Amino acid sequence: MKELKDELERVTAEKDALKDELERVIAAKDALLTAQSAANGADELNAVTRKEFDDLSKQLAEMNEKISSLETIIRNDMEEVEQTVFVKTVDIEEELKQLGASIDATYKLRDEVADMKVYLKAKVEPLDERLSSLGAMVRNDVEELEKKFTRRLAATNDDVDLLMEKVEMTRSANIDRHDFAKELELAGDADDLLDKENSKALAGENHELLMMHGKTPKNYKTPNNKATVNTPRQSPGYSAPTKCSTLRGDQRLKSVLATSSEQNSSVSSTLKYNTHSTKQA
Fold this sequence. Notes:
This protein is an all-alpha fold. The protein has 2 domains: 2-103; 156-280. The protein has helices spanning 2-39, 43-212, 243-280. The longest helix has 170 residues, at 43-212. The radius of gyration is 76 Å and the shape is rod-shaped. The relative contact order is 0.05.
């Protein structure tokens, strides 16, 4: 496109130069004709002038032909260029329309996004405030629950320690009671043995007294016949000689049982108090 334009400018400049030369030649011809007319008989000058004029006319005709050919070429090229430019212009205009539509859609989308931001901000800000308030409430509730749980745990630990002490005391009391029961059992066996010894001694004394008075005891037989002799407990007016030791054992047993009952009552009341305090907490 630029080359064609440069060529057109060059041809136009040459055409202008030829026109200037033609005008100069015509002026010279006119001058010569004037001189010829004035000279009346300058045939040689006329002939030279005519020859130069013919040569210049021929050159001018050739130059005009060249100019016409160049003008045709340039006109065709210009039409082709104009057609190309027109097509390109139409394409560019279509692209510009599409670009404008895209820009309009972009601006519309930007406006919609801005409106959505405003809408979301209006919706989110109350939610943020509510979430902050709920978070503060939850934190306060959690702290309060932690404090209550800590107090309840401390109270429960104290109750458990007290209960363990009571259980240990009860277990010790039960062990003491069990040991004392064994002692009582051994004491009872000793009392039975002592009763048997006393019975044997009393039986021997009664036998000797009866024999001294010439009487035979009731149901008495010799040892060889293996008969059973009445025991002192079956004899009239008998009183056991071991009541003192048995009484002491009974009193000790009652004392232990009373102590164990008091401890059990204390443990029961402690358990009731712990249950009541736990329910209140």
